[in-house]
Amino acid sequence: MTLLKRYVVRMFISLKYITANVVDRNNGRIVASASSVENALKSTLECKRTCNAKAAAVVGEVLAMRLRVEGLENGQGRGIHVDVGKEIERKGLQNRTKVWAIVNALKNNGVKLVLENV
Fold this sequence. Notes:
Blueprint: E1 7-13, E2 18-24, E3 29-35, H1 39-44, H2 53-70, E4 80-83, H3 84-91, H4 96-108, E5 113-116
Parallel strand pairs: 4-5
Antiparallel strand pairs: 1-2, 2-3
Helix pairs in contact: 2-4, 3-4
């Protein structure tokens, strides 16, 4: 069974860290992931702040690069789906700038996104 929304972006935002994954809904596998927990990302952030809008943008850029390496920046022609309204609702209104920072970083780095509930 093939799903129309095969690839989806999932975000996890805590008080300390930000993680973004792209999940293949056909088999539930994470195809690409980026997190501010990673030492390579932590070292590039100013003052080691791993959970602000700048850190979210860096996580989005790294995720976009990893999607390009996997050859999935177009989501196999259908795009990668992001339900922005649902992500903001789940993460809380105070984290909306972080959610949008990740989405904008993905778009600016050439990932074909299909935005829902904007």
